[in-house]
Specification:
By secondary structure, the chain is of the alpha+beta class. The chain has 2 domains: 56 residues; 209 residues, Glutaredoxin, CATH 3.40.30. It has 8 helices and 12 strands. The strands form 4 sheets. Strands 6-5-4-9-10 form a 5-stranded mixed beta sheet. A 3-stranded antiparallel beta sheet has the order 1-7-8. A two-stranded antiparallel ribbon has the order 2-3.
Length: 291
């Protein structure tokens, strides 16, 4: 059993090392919660799967026309992202990420789905939204999809209602006149339910395609999808995206130890049984020889 104890000690040491490493990863939620500035502690993005987005909320589109969200939820899934058009960097990365992943798909906005960007800065104007749409269409390189792209601005009341439904929380810094916020995109069903969501600024083409297919059929992501998506979080204190894997590493380490110990015990038991079976015929031969 000395070998077993040594292996267990090594496995436990590896687990402790991995856990320590996970705690020091920039962007790890558990490691930054205690040290995060007060202004960032309420910043986050955790959309509730199957949560309902209010479709009666009033906004203005990039032409200045008064619209309601329900205009974009007509028998098609909707990709929706919260940004603000005056953002110096991150929001533009989100927009580029959406354009980039959708260019990989054969589906087209306007025909197969709708793309909606909602500004969470009530000071922004339709003119700013129009400029963002122009840049997005230039990157997308399919001018015939113009009718499927929507860049909205609105009142603080509508913004608060929409972001609350998506559990998207942001904070305004008066000194810099900038917003601290997380980022990601949601895929909603045609009746406004949150079917799937993706964190960060880059989104896998295969996952986005499957998300659109599921949402078009009214299907909602599973709890397993939720766990996998939880692995990726934005850390506003460092403005970086990285894997929040502390809990997953701990669980994986514990399972690894259990499998190692279980495997060792099974093999040792088999060796004991095999040795006993081997010695039994030898003892029988010795007894017959003695006679």
């Amino acid at each position: 059993m000395k070998k077993v104890r040594n292996i267990i000690r090594i496995a436990a040491l590896l687990l402790a090392t991995c856990t320590l490493h996970a705690q020091t990863i920039p962007g790890n939620v558990g490691s930054t919660a205690a040290t995060m500035p007060a202004a960032l502690q309420n910043v986050g993005f955790e959309p509730p799967l199957n949560g309902q987005m209010s479709l009666d909320l009033a906004f203005r589109d990039e032409t200045g026309r008064n619209v309601q969200l329900r205009e974009y939820f007509v028998q098609k899934p909707v990709i929706l992202a919260f940004v603000y058009y005056g953002c110096p960097m991150l929001c533009d990365q989100v927009e580029q990420g959406v354009v980039g992943v959708l260019r990989m798909l054969s589906f087209n906005p306007g025909r197969d789905y709708e793309v909606v960007f909602v500004s969470f800065d009530s000071r922004e104007t339709p003119q700013m939204a129009a400029e963002k749409k122009k840049k997005a269409l230039a990157r997308f390189r399919r001018p015939e999809t113009d009718s499927g792209w929507h860049f909205l601005t609105g009142s603080q009341e509508s913004i608060d209602a929409a972001t609350k439904a998506a559990n998207f929380r942001f904070s305004f810094d008066a000194k810099s006149s900038l917003f601290a916020h997380a980022s990601g995109v949601m895929v909603l069903t045609s009746d406004g339910r949150i079917s799937r969501y993706f964190y960060g600024v880059e989104y896998p083409g295969r996952d986005m395609r499957l998300g659109l297919v599921d949402a078009s059929a009214g299907r909602i992501g599973t709890p397993i999808d939720h766990v996998l998506l939880y692995c990726y979080h934005y850390d506003p204190s460092s403005a970086r995206y990285s894997a929040s894997i502390l809990k997953i590493i701990r669980l994986g380490g514990v399972l690894t130890i259990l499998f190692i110990v279980g495997g060792i015990l099974i093999f040792r038991r088999r060796e004991t049984v095999a040795a006993a079976n081997l010695h039994r015929p030898l003892r029988g031969c010795a007894e017959r020889g003695a006679r």
